[in-house]
Amino acid sequence: MTIPTKEVCLKILKENNVSDNIIAHSEAVCDFAMKVADLLKKRSIHVNRNLVAAGALLHDIKKINSDDHVVEGFELVKSLGFPELAQVIKKHGLAHLKEQEFVPKTWEEKIVFYADKRVKSDKIVSVDERFEYIKQRYKKDDVAKEINFTKRIEKELLGNEKLDL
Length: 165
Fold this sequence. Notes:
mainly alpha, 8 helices, single chain
């Protein structure tokens, strides 16, 4: 399995004209994801930290000017020769949660999914605060299923631990 380093991921983002604010968001998601990975390690759960870091950094590579940034990001990263990483990116979004192929299943997929739902812009926030932003930003009234799904993932990843806001 080939996974790009953080430096290579940042280069890929720049080459794809990803805006500075999305890069800042992605770096914050990466930092938070590493904290989650550390918690799992303390519970003797093996996580591929390099895969988590790359997934967190590249998850929104097609966020701007895209009809479906999850699918387009998946396809781009796969075309770059990173099929395992592409799977993590495919499973970070909310739009396709009704389709099994988009539901995060591995620890790495769950960490990137969850970390993205805890970072608003480049700040760590609660799941509830992040979903308030999602409701306003994307004009969605009913996100109860998505919030419940995210909180189930949160419980699975964190147990009773709390990560600072």
